[in-house]
């Protein structure tokens, strides 16, 4: 008996290759098929779409009934027997309507062997006596026999070719190993063919067989005595396919090169033989016959290889046909020229020679056309809808080549329909090939007339494919629609165009840019006449792009996606130069409209400014908008040069025009917020290089004035960031900008001090501030907070004043307005961060001020955190803290915990170690309580409008992300996430992504702790039901919701049970303990079920994640804790235990235990012995996973005694988690036993360690002191199975 290697289990889920699935090659299941004829051949009809329903017979026995078409639906063959008629060769006087009724696609018998007579019969010529049977009536398709692998995939990628069977002189060996150029190989083969064509043909046939991955050999005797059908049958029988792989699909550079050489070889062969050999009635007859037969095989490798070869052969014959056509035209022209000469000047022999040559060329052309027609009917018509997508893709790719090259013959609706039908293919690659085949046809001006009918029939499908789920297909579909727009503009309706318009906002960049090209072709067409003579009010001539930019603004407004201007810009900026026409844009904004044009209204000006700033940003950075993937990694040198040039040009322009724009729109906050961002994308060195200091001074003054007079948050925020960008020390303008910044901050601080002093004096005097005084106080603090976020304002010494107002928030009588206190909190938060940043710089520079600054910073940090905790938690006071302050304080705590986490303890300077701030249990509980109140709350539907709801949800998501961040970065233990995890299902739509990510990160930190956290969250929900209703009803909605959550948790573990083995076992252990232990540790009714027993039904959702041997361990643990005997009445209360045990016994031979009166009785020793023997017998019979267990007694002195005690509540909770979250669970030694019996006398970490070891035990229910520890051992006989003594290799993590 053969044994498996490497300790791997047999995989039972690999699919069987299609050639072994069914005795016939099935048709492509593109769309549902319905019966067509009630015939013995079981013909099927496939409905590609509303356009067509196509009939094709089964393979390989084809029904020779011809196809017919309906003129009004561009349909597939008709179904009426009266309509059946024989194929009539296409004439030159083609009419589209008639062609639909008589297409050029009759079916040929699959077992027909093509000969000169066959072609003669097809074109109505004299039929010679055949040398051999044309129809093999005795051909019966055979199924490839199953070898010892059954065609299933093996463990490794094994190449199905053995070198000992490869003849080094064979074509396959030479081409595979690149022994010489393909032209030389073909020339050598032609020489052999001239000497002995039979032997050379045998080499060629063997090449196609070997290229399919078949080891079979065609002998000379087989070639001379057997038909091709019989040869193929013989090769099929010898096809010892073990891995289902063959050269065309094998990975690696060698096989990629072979695929390329294979196709090229076929084409070179035909090209080198094009003048005589292909017409010798021997080579092409045999090659076409062989390939036709192979393409009909049930063996996928034969079918795929032969179809590819046949398609490339047809492409090569098309090239030959073009050459013959050119020669025929030249000969005809020479003949006509000679015939036009006067009689005395004519050369009679030359006329005869030209006539003979013309006749020969015409015969050659007929011969090639017949070959093409035969192969198209015998191969393409059946393989374009093969089950294998690669075969369908090959067919579509090649028919496109034929139509482009030999359009006289192939660019016809009877051929185009195949592409049209296949546009509905289920596989994206095939749809892509269809569109790529049509692309060059539509790009040609001379071919557009032949595509009118096809376009009218399939235009809707092509437009719909612009929304294809495969982005590559969608891109090609948009490009094809662009071609249709160019050559068939009238066919596309406005609705069709609107479908494509919307794609400029697509999240996929290539699709959006293709849609941008469509916009350029449809809407943004330059028209210089439109602006001829148009001038502004002061007489400046409008630039050519003016009407296009007006149209762009109008398009942006009408699209109603005003928050996605960056997406629209990204779609157009690389294909339309108007997007960088800065002068045109600023002229529209600054110049007043002339008499012949319409002025921009306020909405258009706002939209134009937004688009202009988006263009500036992308031109200066070269970065696509956030969320539009795939993201580019590194720009090339050419792209970097382009970005630098664009940045320089826009800087030179806006240095002069930006102050004018700021001045014009100084009272419009919405426009200012965009305009103030422009300097962030300047090349600031140009100010000094171009001597533009005056414009710099003007810009800084404008910013100062705007900050002083405007109170809009977005404007102030943008101004602060722009000033931060301009105050970079490395630039020459730093001194000027820093001076302007200091002046600006002086103004802000002075206004704050004035406002706050006045407010405090009023409060102290017992007066009530009026609205203006309150407004001034709030706005001055807003400016302080916003500029503190970008600029270090610590030197201005306002910390004490700001902190005093935070402290004052405790006293409602002396408290500032809540919004003002919020800005105080924000300013103090940034003061702490700037202090940390300054300290890091001081420490790095070796300054002695570091110690004093560190103590001051630590003091400020702790007093601020205390105040924040008071505001978030209330500290038990009776004062109600307003939500705006609680929210700001919560965000500050979360961010400060991140900034001052234990990572500072790794800093090289010991001073930084003192700044670490760690959470305590009270803070964790406080933060948890906050998110339970503010995040997981039911919102009132009618309270806000849709926009407000979205804003509110965004705020709550930020609260939750801040809390989860502390767990993910290990600043709080994983256990703190239990109250978050319990809402996973209920709030999945709002926060599912955040909770799922937190689950994943927590699992990365420590799998066991994460699993125990899940179990703890289920416990919390269970206890909530108990607290609310007193008793858990297993049919209640609440209980069902907990089961659903457990199911979702179980799914999150994935399919790798080995990787999560320790974690799942720990989860079951904790769950069992929760279910069987009374809440207070005291048994109320020893004969009744434990109060939490229903929890076992929830726990059963995780059973399928246990390995089979671990189910036994958990079952033993359960039985030792809770004897499985139940009252004879089998009461409802005991059903969860039955359910859980049955889930653990699933697939085993164990039986549900016999019931008894008492639940907690100890079984007798003789019963234990009997069950042990039975279990060992079961173990021996379980051959798939376990192997044979060999009992090996070990020393008993170290065994723990079994104590039947109740578990105190404190110990229960402490054993749920590992002491550390920082390191993932370590794999245990295989020799460790799994003893999860007694928990009262063992520290929790030891219990968890023993749980993780997971030694495989039998299902015996003995107490531990009866037997010693078992060993695990691997033996040669049982390699790859679970044997006592060793883990399987694949089971170690």
Automatic annotation (TrEMBL):
Amino acid composition bias (Acidic residues), ranges on this chain: 1169-1179
UniProt GO cellular component terms: chromatin; cohesin complex; nucleus
SCD domain ranges (all copies): 380-465
GO terms (BP aspect): sister chromatid cohesion
Bias-annotated ranges (Basic and acidic residues): 1262-1274
Annotated coiled-coil segments of the chain: 325-371
Bias (Polar residues) ranges: 72-89, 1198-1229
Keywords (A to Z) from UniProt: Coiled coil
GO MF terms held by the record: chromatin binding
Region feature Disordered, mapped onto this chain: 1-43, 55-89, 141-162, 1169-1293
Keyword Coiled coil (UniProt): yes
Matching Pfam families: HEAT_SCC3-SA, SCD, STAG
Xref: SUPFAM superfamilies: ARM repeat
The family this protein is said to belong to: Belongs to the SCC3 family.
Protein name: Cohesin subunit SA-2 isoform X3
